[in-house]
Write a structure and sequence with these properties.
Blueprint: H1 3-22, E1 35-40, E2 55-58, E3 61-62, H2 63-66, E4 73-82, E5 90-94, E6 97-98, E7 100-105, E8 108-112, E9 128-132, E10 140-149, E11 157-158, E12 162-165, H3 166-204, H4 209-230, H5 238-263, H6 269-288, H7 294-323, H8 326-349, H9 361-448, H10 454-474, H11 482-499, E13 503-507, H12 519-540, E14 544-551, E15 555-562, H13 579-584, H14 589-599, E16 601-607, E17 612-619, H15 620-632
Parallel strand pairs: 13-14
Antiparallel strand pairs: 1-2, 1-4, 3-11, 4-10, 5-9, 5-12, 6-11, 7-8, 7-10, 14-15, 15-17, 16-17
Helix pairs in contact: 1-8, 3-4, 4-5, 5-6, 5-7, 6-7, 7-8, 8-9, 9-10, 10-11, 10-12, 11-12, 12-14
Length: 633
């Protein structure tokens, strides 16, 4: 809030408090009766009958000032003259008759503040208004008799009495009743809503204990309003009622002190200790000290509560002056107003402001309600604004992190792509060096030594071309498609097999993707199969060769079987312990074993009734475990 705005709000709040404290009421249209005759506690007095020997008194008549404390009830008579019979619409209005009173006009009962006999109603804070029928009145002298019942406190009495037209007296009575009864009821309804709201807020935010203290202060305030201003017949004796009212009053000041210092974040151990003392010490003194000392206990308790209220106001004022926060300034003004109004009502209780003065303490909580409502709304709006700013900041940071991650992802992809290209290039160079390069060097050496004829040179070069084609086939985009690569190999080798008089039987099916995963592995598988075909062509003397695939959940087999005669080799062979050593031995079976070991497979060689078999065997269970471990990472 801008400085001008909150200063204007503070001035408006102060003006409202001054208006409430002055208690500006309507000017009396009908002049009051200010003289009456008093007769103390006669048992045989009859309303409208002879008065006997009464005493002239001035109204308002306060019993403690008139030293009528020897009585607990008495009769007042007011005499007035009427020139003629009045028209309809007359009324009797008495601003205050405490604790209770019954009213008679010319001996006719017109109303009361409730039951007169013990236990009587406690109507010390209630105006009385009764319509009077014109049939009761008469020309000449008329009398108003009032039976007043008081308490042992001695501060009760009878205010001035008004009699006149209903239309003249009712507006003032309605205004007084609003201040005394209607507004406290409205405030208690607002209090109930705020108590529920603040309690729920504290349940959701238990770290904000100030809201719980304020809710408890409102609860004490509402209960005190009920007992002090509104409920005229609580089921308890006067001593218990006075003690309860005192403790509720102490609870309001103690809890508001605890709330205030926490709300402004200036918690003080002295304030906490004073609040606890205000809540506990008076109760202990009431129980420990005799009844004769209770009046002094309550007097000093109220003074201590007011003193603590003043101390909290000073603390709030200093904090507001230093921080210059609008809500703290308004809280200081509201607390100050509460102390001022409380002090004003203390004077009213002592009849220092007149017996008919209206108590204004019910208005003292209104500034706090306005301040707390505005502060909570401001805190909520600030929280919403802060959350919006935080969300925008988080969105910007997330967007920035997203761009950063996207940039890093692209860089990683580029690096991985470059690494894959470099790895593939190195693999191709290694494969060509080990395969095609080795064959070319061997062929070149034999040609230079003139050890090969033209047909042998052609055969060696054809082997080099086959190895180059295997390398190219393994680079096809269909990863792990071993069946397609074997089909390409069949397409190239089948004419050579037929030319050598060898029939080809093809029983190749789909194999698990775990078999020969990756271009390099596929190339090694193809070279093993090609090596097996080469052995069949060169050494077996076979007329038929069969290529077959088999797969179980545990293993996959790629089998090359022929019907040639090459001796007894029925026992399986194991893979060579060192792949590099096997490659150095040259080509043939050792080369096949080394390639199988590099694949994590094994070569099994055996003999059957028609010939020999060479099998490339993959352990699928082990490969699945390795694949799952890689996914877990």
């Amino acid at each position: 809030m801008r400085p001008r705005r909150w200063r204007f709000a503070a001035l408006a709040l102060a003006a409202a408090l001054i208006a409430a404290a002055t208690g500006a009421f309507a000017t009396h249209v009908t002049p009051p009766f200010e003289r009456a005759e008093f007769l103390g506690s006669p048992a045989d007095f009859v309303p409208g009958g002879p008065m006997g020997r009464g005493t002239d008194v001035t109204l308002p008549d306060v019993w403690s000032q008139a030293r009528r404390t020897a009585y607990r009830e008495g009769w007042y008579r007011i005499r007035f003259e009427l020139v003629s019979t009045p028209v309809a619409g007359q009324a009797l209005y008495v601003p205050r008759a405490s604790r209770n009173a019954a009213f008679y006009v010319n001996g006719v009962f017109v109303g009361s503040g409730g039951p007169i006999e013990n236990p009587h109603y406690r109507n010390w804070n209630r105006a009385h208004f009764f319509a009077v029928s014109e049939t009761v009145l008469k020309p000449g002298e008329n009398v108003i008799d009032i039976r007043l019942v008081t308490s042992a406190v001695g501060k009760d009495g009878l205010s001035r009495v008004f009699f006149g037209a209903d239309t003249d007296l009712r507006p003032e009575f309605d205004l007084r009743r609003f201040h005394q009864l209607t507004f406290p009821w409205i405030q208690n309804g607002i209090n109930a809503f705020l108590i529920v709201f603040l309690t729920l807020y504290w349940i959701l935010r238990p770290d904000r204990a100030e809201h719980l203290f304020f809710a408890l202060a409102l609860l004490c305030w509402s209960a005190r309003n009920m007992l002090y201003l509104q409920w005229h017949a609580p089921p308890m004796d006067d001593a218990t009622l006075d003690l309860l009212q005192m403790q509720l009053f102490n609870g309001v000041f103690a809890l508001l002190a605890l709330f205030s210092v926490r709300y402004i974040e200036a918690r003080s151990r002295w304030v906490d200790a004073a609040a606890v003392a205000l809540l506990t010490v008076p109760l202990l003194l009431e129980w420990l000290l005799p009844a004769s000392a209770q009046g002094w206990v309550r007097f000093f308790t109220y003074q201590f509560a007011n003193l603590m209220g003043v101390g909290v106001c000073v603390l709030l004022g200093l904090h507001a002056w230093r921080g210059r926060r609008p809500e703290h300034v308004l809280l200081f003004l509201a607390a100050t107003a509460m102390v001022v109004i409380g002090a004003r009502d203390v004077l009213a209780v002592q009849n220092k402001l007149g017996f008919e003065a209206i108590y204004l303490l019910q208005y003292a909580a209104l500034p706090l309600f306005l301040t707390m409502g505005w502060a909570l709304l401001k805190r909520l709006l600030d929280s919403v604004k802060e959350a919006e700013l935080l969300n925008r900041s988080l969105e910007a940071r997330v967007e920035e992190k997203h761009r950063e991650l996207e940039h890093n992802y692209n860089r990683i992809n580029d690096i991985e792509r470059q690494s894959a290209v470099a790895g593939e290039r190195a693999r191709m160079m290694q494969d060509m060096h080990d395969g095609l390069g080795s064959q070319l060097m061997t062929t070149l050496a034999l040609v230079e030594n003139r050890s090969l004829n033209q047909q042998e040179v052609a055969e060696a070069l054809r082997g080099c071309i086959d190895d180059m084609r295997l390398t190219i086939d393994s680079l096809q985009p269909d990863d792990n498609d071993l069946a397609s690569l074997l089909g390409n190999l069949r397409y190239r080798l089948e004419p050579r097999l037929k030319a050598a008089g060898i029939d080809l039987e093809w029983k190749v099916g789909e194999l698990s993707p775990l078999v020969g995963a990756g271009p390099h592995a596929l190339l090694q598988v193809m070279r093993i199969v090609q090596e097996a075909f080469t052995n069949v062509l060169k050494h077996s003397g076979a007329t038929r060769v069969r290529v077959e695939t088999r797969e179980t959940p545990a293993e996959a087999r790629l089998i090359v079987a022929d019907n040639g005669k090459r001796g007894d080799r029925s026992q399986p062979v194991s893979v060579a312990p060192d792949a590099a050593t096997a490659l150095r031995r040259g080509r043939g079976l050792s080369n096949m074993q080394a390639r199988a070991q590099a694949l994590g497979a094994r070569i099994e060689r055996g003999q059957h009734d028609e010939g020999h078999t060479v099998s490339l065997v993959f352990n699928l269970l082990a490969r699945k475990q390795v694949a799952r471990a890689g996914e877990g990472k």
